[in-house]
Amino acid sequence: MIKISAELKRKNNSNENTQEPETKSKKQKEESYALSKTIFPSFKEPEQTETVSKIPTKRKYTRSLTPKQNKKQNEASPNSQRRQELIKELTNKNNLMNTPTIGTENPVPQRLVMTNESCLTESTQMNEPQKPGNNSTKNLRQISHTSNEDDAVVIEHELELKYRRKKYSANIYGDGIKYFTINIHERLRELKRCVGIENPLLIQPQFDDQNNQIWLKLEVNNYDDYLKLKSSWPCDSFKTGVKVEILPPPLVINILQVDKNIQIDPSSESLNELKKRYGLFNIERVFIGNEKPTNKLRASVTSIQEYINLIKNGLYMNETSKKHHVSPNIVYAKICGCCGSLQHKEKECNSFKRCLRCGLTSHNSENCISEKPTCVNCGAMHHTNSDFCEKAAEKTFQMNEYTLEILTGERVIPDNRSILRKKSIDNQVNLIHHGRIGPETLSDNLLNNKIEDLVKRVNLVEQTVSNHQIEIDEHDIICLQETWLEDMSKKDNLIYVDNKIIVMNKARRIAKKGRASGGMAFILDKRLKYTSKFYSERIGTLTLGNLTIVNVHLHHYDGSETAKFNFDIQLSQIQEIVEQHRQNKRQVVIVGDMNTDLAKDCYNTTKLKSYVFDNKMLLRDIYDPQLVDFTFKRKNSSLIKSWIDHIICYEKDYETIKSVKILTDIKNQSDHNCISFELSQKLISKESILKKNAVKNVTLNWTNKQIRHIYNNKIQPELEKIEKQLSQLNLTETRNNLKNNITKIINELSSTLINAAQSLKNELNYLREKKQKPIGGLKFKRWWDQNIQDIHNDLIDAYIEYRDSNFDKSKKYIFTEKKRLFRLQKRFNIQLLKNKHLNKINELFKLDKSKFWKRIKQAQQNNIKIDIDLEKIRIHYDELFNKNNAANGDPEGKIKLETFNRSYENHKFSYHLDASSIQDTINSLKNGKSIGIHGVSNEMLKYSVSTRLINIIKTLFENMINHQVMPYLFNLSIIKPLIKDPKKSSDDISNLRPVAVSDSLANLFEAILLKEVSKYHRDHELQFGFKAKSSCAHAIFTLQQTIKNSMYLGKWAYITAIDASKAFDKIDRNILWQKLITAQIHPAIIRSIINYYNESLMMVTNDNEYSVPFKTSIGVRQGGVLSPKLFSIYIEDLIIKVEELKAGIKIGDQTVSIILYADDIVV
């Protein structure tokens, strides 16, 4: 059976997924309480106990609902009756089965029902009978509130005694203060007279010129004087009386995880309410560098009691509707950026600049070459700005002394060191400082601690991945709605199951801020052969054989005409998609979020029911017993639930869909439950199709000499390591072991070449991102070049002369002219930049016309998609490259081949390759060619060429030739079919041209074999194709001269043109080996070619799908550099036999009877 899950992965609440309001009346809550009977009449709700919390007194009252009360509630619920009528209506119209009933073994879980204020009054009356109109409840709240305030004052007094400050501050306001601003002794005498304070730390007048206000700032150093400040002052204090403002303790907190988009407006009502509720003031956003906002708010607290409560319990904000953690605001010690001191800031520094690494003044930190760092402050072996510094820690403790005293006293933190950024190494830093351990030991300890932390994290991730894998692996197909994912490159990192893939449509961003909206996806088994299409961000299809799954996420209904229009459009689109697939005789199943509860009357419900009934469909999920009667539940609320996700199918397909279940799993963090169902496996055909990421070449600017030089230097150390492994080849005894070792070395060589290119590309990208203009260098503007730089320099010089001449008119003319030239050049360069692509094409035409026309052909190349099944293409080419011809050559040649193979099959040759010839072959490789399955390009081989690389390749290829072994997957070609004629049908397999792409190392091996074969065989002079100093133009010239000569002699010329269809593909290899033996090619080379083709494999690719590899038994390799030479040898007997006929056209002493250009023949 194929298991399919319609799952909605939404991690936050969504207001659009329910038709129920946020707040409910008592009647609505009673309806929700009886929701279990609304769909299934046989369900009985068990007894429940309600808990009501009275906020002012924090006392709890309970009231149990009796079965009789439950019955009344269920009977009174119109929603229950409406849902029963709906089920009856659905079953009567579909006429498939009786009204569904819920399973009795696992009843619906109890639902918590929140009560309103009337419940509280009733429960209070049950415990303490009250007379009608009695205000005892109100009085109880007032008395409780007053007692709470008194308790708070006592607790705050005890905390102030426990945690005494170094100073207590207050501001004194009054009209008579202006008479006491001159003489401090008069202020002291008056203060002593008023409240008895004799020795204040500070009594200083403060002036506000803008508001024309004067007040006194007063500071005392003991709690007794602080209490005197808070006491009553005489009416004639400072002549006219005063108003005293007691300043709160210096306690600051950080409110964490507050969205950056929330504006902090001091005048807002919600912020004022937050201040009153939690005793806060001076609430502000924390910024990085005064520009970039963070997700933290900083606020001061009015009392120690509030400070402790906030640190321990956090707070709630109206703007976010969630709880926020609160942390103490710790001020860390900072060093001077100039000298490294902790005693002053960099702006106040008068000392010499020091190196912050070693502490010397002779150089700066960038030029420091000292091996041992030295701290300027503590003298320990670490950088001055390191978190290891004990002096910095002591300074931090000193700056936060009062805060730390409260935090440790209330056991919020175990000790002072808990606030440091580096907690785990403080004791070891002390040991280094005292010389007990060395920095190496510290490094080992730090590494071990880091490893332990990483192991814990890995174990946690592995557990999560294991749970995730089990959930996903249970189903072959999973349909997702509302993925919210914009970046398609990250989709492969979202699942942790190797045998699954994600097919998705990215979410659409509506606003610049916040998350994206929508997005759909399918998670399915890699082995499934499928086609997918997304019509919008809310509708997508997945086709598997004769089954089509339509994944939908319909618009919700908000009462607007726009919502009605969107819903109608989506239903029409679904109808069109379904009809299209039904015409192709496919079974169609619609799954997803319908965004409307069919038990409630609204526009969307009416339309959806009409669509289902009119098309003879049914809601398959309501016909199977379910453990729960909802698919959506708002988080943090047990009331708001609805059944809005469904499986829709045609009536005749009812039996094919089985085991439909609403899954309730606590691991599911979404607000939607998954719906799982099963289908027969015969509906979906599984093929041997591989999905693979497209092979992409590592693109570097290989024309840049500096890049080539850096790449060559980067690759040499790795080549040296590979070169040391070559000695293992001589120690290998068996041929299989030698084959394994050669394969291993070739794989390491390929990985080394690719990794070096990728590393260099990453470095160049990093430098490009961090690129900065050097002083005096060219500006980093794309239109700025050396020419405009010279004009700009002349402009500056002209302006200086104009200025130094006291703005003489003659100099002004020169300056104006220079400025005009600069502007003209600037406009010209910008215009050139706009036509950059055209300029490149023009330059390419001047430099290399062949590359120019190649670029034009690429631009004109058609990208028509091939509408043929990949497995069908594979079977076609498998037959093409394995169906042998009837003829097998003459018997003598067959005997000669058998004798040759028996003689040399196990023979060990001693053939040697020329190193200079290998180097010339590598240098002659063409750039820009397609890469094979291993990912090595010709450029990587060319620009890493060195003595080491030549030695490695020479040793590998000589062992392959002499020991007659071929590495695994060495001769593996990728066939990419291209459409010959775009005007013809794209599903015609005869309209395909197979283009084979091989690995660069295999092409290099063929090129070396070609040179070795050419030493023993020379092509016939009438074969113009694929040989040095010969081209198609020579063949055409020979044909033209032959025709002209016949016309000159007045004779008829009869010409037959022969195009051998699939000539390269139909070569009989046994006959080819016989002809190589007859041509007296060296046996080592012949055996190498035979072994090379015996290991010939091919795989077909189309639209990033790859077929399974298959072997080939006939033909020469498509795209191989050796193939034209082999074909020339194969067809050479035809030229000789035609010449023996002595027929043709005579030109002087020569007789032209046949002309060949590869497989194109003219007789």
TrEMBL record:
<feature type="compositionally biased region" description="Basic and acidic residues">
    <location>
        <begin position="21"/>
        <end position="32"/>
    </location>
</feature>
<feature type="region of interest" description="Disordered">
    <location>
        <begin position="1"/>
        <end position="83"/>
    </location>
</feature>
<feature type="compositionally biased region" description="Basic and acidic residues">
    <location>
        <begin position="1"/>
        <end position="10"/>
    </location>
</feature>
<feature type="region of interest" description="Disordered">
    <location>
        <begin position="122"/>
        <end position="145"/>
    </location>
</feature>
<dbReference type="InterPro" id="IPR000477">
    <property type="entry name" value="RT_dom"/>
</dbReference>
<dbReference type="InterPro" id="IPR036691">
    <property type="entry name" value="Endo/exonu/phosph_ase_sf"/>
</dbReference>
<protein>
    <recommendedName>
        <fullName>Reverse transcriptase domain-containing protein</fullName>
    </recommendedName>
</protein>
<dbReference type="Pfam" id="PF00078">
    <property type="entry name" value="RVT_1"/>
</dbReference>
<dbReference type="InterPro" id="IPR043502">
    <property type="entry name" value="DNA/RNA_pol_sf"/>
</dbReference>
<feature type="domain" description="Reverse transcriptase">
    <location>
        <begin position="959"/>
        <end position="1163"/>
    </location>
</feature>
